[in-house]
Amino acid sequence: MTQQTAQLDKPKMPGQIPYIIANEGCERFSFYGMRNILTPFLITSLLLSMPESMRAGMAKEVFHTFVIGVYFFPLLGGWLADRFFGKYNTVFWLSLVYCAGHACLAVFENNKEGFYTGLFLIALGSGGIKPLVTSFVGDQFDQSNRSLAQKVFDGFYWIINFGSFFASLLMPIFLKQYGPSVAFGIPGILMFIATVIFWSGRTKYVHVPPFPNNPHSFLNVVKTALNAHQPGQGRTGYFIAVLGGLLALASLTLIPSVGVVAAFCLALVLVLGFGGMGAWLQLERARGVHPDEAVDGVRAVLRVLVVFALVTPFWSLFDQKASTWVLQANDMTKPEWFQAAQMQALNPMLVMLLIPFNNLVLYPMLKRMGVELTALRRMGLGIAFSGLAWIVVGFMQLAMDGGDALSITWQILPYALLTFGEVLVSATGLEFAYSQAPLAMKGVIMSFWNLSVTIGNLWVLLANSSVKSPAVTEYIKTTGISVTAFQMFFFAGFALVAALLFALYARSYQMLNNYRKS
């Protein structure tokens, strides 16, 4: 083979990728810029009318409700893109909604209804585009250059954290020095710039058109499988799905105690969980009515959803660094000029260091030693590292509850452990989710990946609601530790059990290659 032929055969990086990466960097600055100052702003400004003892709990509830919305609306965005408008158009128009939400935060800093409207619009815009930008990156690759996709997904995640780092570092300062209107206005400007950059590359992108209404779609195959009758066979799967629906309706009665968002999300989890189990048991009954390719595709999606479900405990730990960890940092000793929320800048800074370190040093070194860290192995280890981070945080809380004055620098260790876990789970999960999704379901399957974050935050809201129960409160008192420390150790154990179950499931999982053909 000549050198010229080798050059022609060498995979080429798509030239349009820089537009998407730059758009993502600005968008992530805008999102994390407002997200990382949300809890401090709520406590010090918007919730001042509440008794001081209740502000931290309410701020945490508002924050996690907002995050639930952000990671729930990907379902809507994925559906709109896959069925009607395509990824590019859906991202562009929802980005304008996103900008309007930022404007509301800047204008309605003293008005709860206006401010919460802004949070809703940001959740709709940010959540709606979230799975699409990621899958849009994957659309720019085909079988000829898919070997470059993992590097781009890592770079994609790197730029996310580049924007997050500067947002986490600067926005708490702007909030303190210039007030909420400026601190929330700057992220809005960055989001507008992100939209303009994305629009500028419109003629260079690979546009995968939306798929028409498909009689052999995921939902149609599932419906056929659940409703099919076969002589001499029971309908166990159907009754499991019905049970899930009934439990979902029953969960709505929890609205007075856990709130509308948490109750609705719990109902969704029950429908997906029990419906998925029922469909799995009866899926072979759909053959003949639907082609084998469609039935096998549904089987593949259900297997992927089990992976996503086992990742949800990781997100319940990870997203609390912007609520529980910030509240802990408020009670730690630190320089007067340093804001507790700025500690979050450590997370993206470590991500930017760990991604190149892992790819250039750690993974090659382990491979030379005969250790192959597959995607699923990395994700399972990442969940376990998040549990270790919360064990450390829990012992720090015990020391503080005992009267020790801990420096905020103690949080560096749990941040390092949690961030290493994040790189193993999240950066890997982006490419895993895209590669395992059938071609007709790229947007929707990425939406389910983001839905795992919603469910993770749902566990947080349910845990917070449970500790308000007198029975649970009395039990925690018998342990001799504070409610905060108890919750920290609870979430650590939650993650470690999930990591074990993940490892057991991953042993039998067969990886797929669902990139489009060149």
UniProtKB/TrEMBL annotation:
Keywords: Membrane, Peptide transport, Protein transport, Transmembrane, Transmembrane helix, Transport. Pfam families: PTR2. InterPro entries: Dipep/tripep_permease (IPR005279), MFS_trans_sf (IPR036259), POT_fam (IPR000109), PTR2_symporter_CS (IPR018456). It is found in: Membrane. PROSITE patterns: PTR2_1. The chain crosses the membrane at residues 62-81, 88-108, 114-134, 155-175, 181-199, 261-280, 300-318, 345-366, 378-400, 412-434, 446-465, 485-506. It is a multi-pass membrane protein. Belongs to the major facilitator superfamily. Proton-dependent oligopeptide transporter (POT/PTR) (TC 2.A.17) family. NCBIfam families: yjdL_sub1_fam. This is MFS transporter. It comes from Undibacterium curvum.
